[in-house]
Amino acid sequence: MYQVKYRLLTEEEQTHLSQEFIQYLASNSITGEDWESIKKNKPDEAQKHFAIFSDMVMEGAIDNIHYIELKKEDSIQLMACLKEEAKIIQLDIEKSSFSFLENSSIQSLAEGKLKLDDLKAKIFSSELKYPTDRNLFVFSMLNQGYTPVSKEYWNNFNSLIKK
């Protein structure tokens, strides 16, 4: 039995990727008629094909995630997920009128209306060697509530802490 590396696609995801699944089947020399027979007569084999396809999709998606963040009311942690390690920036604040969960607060910081000193910010940065392979690590972080962000977003925070 095939062990799923990430997770099975949801029904909605599967619906959106039906053409890609057909291409996957074709690349494995499975016709539409063959697939119907496999689903009916060999459900374990059908599940295996779906699991492999799910992992291929997830692997491709995670390969394209390079920056992630986790926001809390009084802190934000960003990671640049490089090939061999993650670079981490964390800002913790003491000022209660500021919230990383509010876009307007982050905008004020980005525009220079607020300074990190005003927030009594504590800034931490570090590097982390992946305890597993890179993509499993990123997948784990996503499951813990991290969300993908752009390189520009990462660079803005990175430049902010270097001032």
Helix proportion range: 40-55%
Give, in order, the helices and strands. Answer: HHHHEEEHEHEH
Query: Which descriptor suits the 3D outline?
Result: elongated
Radius of gyration: 21 Å
Q: Quaternary status of these chains?
A: single chain
Strand percentage, roughly? Answer: 15-25%
Number of domains: 2
* Spans where pLDDT lies below 50 across 5 or more residues: none
Summarize the biggest pleated sheet: 5 strands, antiparallel
Structural class by SSE content: alpha+beta
**Overall strand count:** 5
Overall mean pLDDT score?
Answer: 91
N- and C-termini, Cα separation: 54 Å
**Helix count, DSSP H or I runs of 4 or more residues:** 7
Strand order of the largest sheet: 4-3-2-1-5
How does this structure look, described?
The N and C termini lie far apart (54 Å). The chain has two domains: 53 residues; 95 residues, no CATH class. It is α+β, with helices and mostly antiparallel strands. It has a five-stranded antiparallel sheet, sandwiched between helices. The chain is elongated, with a radius of gyration of 21 Å. The model has no long low-confidence stretch (mean pLDDT 91). Helix 3 packs across helix 4.
Annotate the secondary structure layout:
Elements: H1 11-16, H2 18-27, H3 32-41, H4 43-63, E1 67-72, E2 75-81, E3 85-92, H5 103-110, E4 122-129, H6 134-143, E5 147-148, H7 151-161
Antiparallel strand pairs: 1-2, 1-5, 2-3, 3-4
Helix pairs in contact: 3-4
Please describe the structure with a list of short key phrases separated by commas or semicolons.
163 residues, alpha+beta, 19% strand, elongated
